[in-house]
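User: Can you predict the 3D structure for this chain?
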Amino acid sequence: FKMFTGIVEHMGVVVEIQQLDSSATGGDGWSMKIGDAEPVLVDCRLGDSISINGTCLTVTDFGTEWFKVGLAPETLRRTNLGDLKVGSKVNLERALAANVRFGGHFVQGHVDTTGEIISITPEVNSLWIKISPSDSKYLRYIIPKGYICLDGTSLTVCEVNDAENWFNIMLVAYTQSHVIMPLKRVGDKVNIEVDMLGKYVEKIVEPMLLGETNGVGGYLDKLVTNYLEKTISKKNYESNVIKKEES
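Assistant: Here is the predicted structure, written as structure tokens:
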């Protein structure tokens, strides 16, 4: 069970990218080495999970200041990691430990889609950033004042425009100095992980609303039906008792 909070611990830097890594730790696939990463490696072990730009990845090798991960084809399709170059800065966060304060929101490190930055607007010492999801279906899980994870950073959604397919967030001065978002430009991609609560609720409730009778939806439908039947029966019983008393 691995979980993150979206509170970025450190910004590392990409020091090596191999599209076909045939070494013992490369797995004959795409690999990436992250340097300037000592703060997230103090208790690192092989096989540990570290979030890179909001993507949960497995450490296959590491030193005192660097670590290496492999990138599967699905990861490259879903995220912006394939766009990174040597020298790119990345947000880093270790998987959540049981004995630490929880400061963000529940983040899985499973990127749903990417989004394109369509505007960056300063306001005093804050920064407004407007983003358009690449897959518009995920916009239904994004709500004003709800949580969202962008490149591994837990942020609060400010506005959502379903008709124009965008939402925006605001970065305060402290956050701007601790994450990579202010380094991006209009047209750049960000990794988006929506709040998983909305997806779970939809999975459970949608079959009920559509009248499906199989699976979880059917089970919940039966529970609701039983509850209503018992409630109606109780009301009928109480009504009959009142009528008898009145007569």
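The chain has a mean pLDDT of 89. The helical segments are 73-78, 173-176, 196-209, 215-246.
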